[in-house]
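Milestone M4 deliverable, item 7.
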Amino acid sequence: MLNIIHLENVNIYQSGNVILSNVNIDVDKGEFVYLIGKTGTGKSSLLKTLYAELKIQEGKGAIAGYDLNNLKRKEIPFLRRKLGIVFQDFQLLTDRNVYQNLQFVLKATGWKDKKEIDARIMEVFGMVGMQGKISKMPHELSGGEQQKVAIARSLLNHPEIILADEPTGNLDPEISDDIMKLLFDISKTGCAVLMATHNYQLIEKYPSRILKCENNRITDSKQPIVIEVRMEAILETPNVDVLQPKGSEEDPVSFD
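Output delivered:
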């Protein structure tokens, strides 16, 4: 599989303090990954590192083909065109309708042909089911509709990964379900999704790989923590000493 994200022995700093240490992560094309952890444990710092707001000082990192260690300031806008970024508070421009919101992004990222701009905007609005709302102002839309517009905006430049920071945080459960289904559908097209969330009910309903920020570290559900070995297999193997467990309910079982 092609790595969209690769972080190797990365230490992430904020204001001179280590927020996350020894981060080792690979995310593949089309993979859906949750990022969880209590407030202040480093979720936002990790996302900022990935979209190059925070510079890697120790370790190695790459995303969407860009080397984060040697990324020049003038290259950052080009990197971000390969990333779709979705925020909890939508961040739509309130002085223009939703079509003009997306038009603004395309023009700012170098699109010039009006027919191509119109076609791409209609395409992404179709992907999120918002074709009939293109002339609406943001305040005329519900929270869920505004988030769908934000997701459509994130798809404009054919990103390789979407970084979603609490995209359902301001939404009711039914609308949150719609957003989750949409993000999973997007991942099935080959665009990876890394989604920060506090909503464990959604994780239970839509299970996938989990990265957890805790105690300045990231643990990965993809990596096995316990290896189970059937006792019958040990007994059937010649010249193998059977490991004898020791311990009790008060003293958990361990092996020598």
